[in-house]
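Title: Comparing notes on inverse folding

I've been comparing how different people in this forum approach sequence design from structure. To keep things fair, I'm posting one structure and asking everyone to reply with a full sequence. Here's the target:
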């Protein structure tokens, strides 16, 4: 029967292993820092907290591309409120692992922020320079409120003072990849956060 064929084909696709996760882990990942389960548990917790904090209001989730795209998809499904999403693309790093302090807006928002309750979703706060720049820029657009939710925050190395209301995990100041975070655009699809082997980036 036609319907059955389609269904089983779909099932095969759903269960197909995703890209080269196992391969990447073997070759370039030193060790897993935060497991897939830990991330998912934390996002559920944050989603519940956000749902309580914004009760009766309508949220605008603002994702900072590209790193936040994975977290945005998972976190948004734990927020039990009417919400809209928008994305902004910025570049603060090239292919290297050190911040330049220079932030360029590559793609601006589609939404007008005036009077909106805005929650900015960031993958990681490292030096904090990117976030600092973004918050200044966004405040100028007169949102009713503006808070930040970051999956990761590196401990003790922020070069500016920042109020990050929701933080998933505080981590040591090492370079990490996975769950949206890249090195030279790779590893974003790993379901966990891991430490890169030094020789995976030492020659760049
Ligand atoms: P910051 O301006 O130094 O806080 O860096 C912000 C941006 O740099 C993040 O949104 C990431 O895209 C990138 N970044 C910072 N640390 C890491 C890391 O450990 N791995 C991958 N990307 C990082
Ligand atoms: Mg990056």
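Reply #1:
Here's my take.
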């Amino acid at each position: 029967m036609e319907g059955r064929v389609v269904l089983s084909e779909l099932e095969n696709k759903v269960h197909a292993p995703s890209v080269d996760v196992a391969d990447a882990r073997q070759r370039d990942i030193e060790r897993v820092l935060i497991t897939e389960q830990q991330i998912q548990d934390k996002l559920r917790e944050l989603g519940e907290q956000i749902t309580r904090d914004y009760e009766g209001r309508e949220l605008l989730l603002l994702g900072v591309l590209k790193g936040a795209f994975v977290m945005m998809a998972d976190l948004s499904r734990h927020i039990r409120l009417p919400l809209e999403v928008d994305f902004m693309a910025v570049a603060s790093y090239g292919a290297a692992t050190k911040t330049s302090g220079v932030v360029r807006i590559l793609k601006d928002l589609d939404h007008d922020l005036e009077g909106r309750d805005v929650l900015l979703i960031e993958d990681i706060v490292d030096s904090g320079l990117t976030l600092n720049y973004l918050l200044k820029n966004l405040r100028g657009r007169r949102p009713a409120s503006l808070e930040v939710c970051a999956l990761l925050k590196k401990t003790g190395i922020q070069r500016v003072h920042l109020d990050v209301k929701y933080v998933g995990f505080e981590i040591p100041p090492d370079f990490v990849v996975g769950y949206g975070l890249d090195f030279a655009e790779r590893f974003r699809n790993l379901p966990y956060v891991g430490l890169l082997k030094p020789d995976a980036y030492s020659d760049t």
